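Predict the 3D structure for this chain.
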Amino acid sequence: MASWTDGTDGDVTTSDVVRALHFREICAAVNRRRLLVYLAEEDFSAVFVDDTWIVPGPIDNSSSPFDLRQSIDSKILNPVLGGLGGIPPTPSNMDWLWALPDSDENKVIVASAPGAGEVSFFAKMNGGSGWTDSTLTAGTTWIRAVHVNELRWGIETLTRGRWEMPIYLSASIFSPLPDDPWVGGAIANNGSAELRAFGFAQMYTSDVPSRGLEEVTVRSSSRIYLTTDANCEVDVYRCKRPISWIANPPTWNKYDPSGGLSWQVAGCGGADDREYIGSMTMVATVENSITGAGVAAALQEIVDGAEQNFMVRRSDTGLETVGITGRLRIEFDLNVPPN
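Done. Predicted structure below.
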């Protein structure tokens, strides 16, 4: 449950004075969600004068950076995809989901007319198709309790998400050449020699403050997807070690060759090297996935600050070298409060 100053059940009442404090709370909550969709925080300081008075039009839908409404419905509810780059670009999809346990639970929240599997943001908020008093004119339109409450409601509604992103299988390690790095995107196991693939997903960035998934609880409905170009069995692990993907890629013997740092067990085989997530039976060119508590626990470790790395190996044997691609769907709830 969100925590707001003044009001009952989050609402400012018509008898309350709309204060700068109310907007500071809203601005902080908006910025938290901007970071979640990989956007930088917005500087809303000019909204306030001496932390007491509110500059006219702080939610005016025509002037940045005061545009709190568009920050919610245009920048957060409909975030820009692919902003972190990569091939394929990441994130590939970001949806906010209806979180209340009713007939619309887990439907995608949209600002436009809803289609199948979707629910209307504005219809749920006020029964309409837009904000109350859709045009606010600085110095003319009074800021009313309903304007504050709709902003609060919008923030409270955007607490469950479903982000999708590629897993970049960028490196491999090869047992017959244990001190040489190998090209990623392939696995192999003929019973005596093995090629294992390593990859990462960009769940959060190294910016300060970090952009991406932080202070969220990963849901057990999250999934790791893989596709291979041949029939095989695969095991998926969370790799606990830091990996340098370009300048210092891993080898069968070392996860940090330049630093002389070895795996606990060669091939990323020890308990300090990896954590088992799950297994899949793969049919050539058919995507398969794993989900459940093990996936959620591994992804939660990453969200909480662990390395964003994965390792995939072929657990059966065969003569083929198998090409492999992956993607991640992470579903989460914000830890609230804070808002």
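DSSP finds five helices and 18 strands in the chain.
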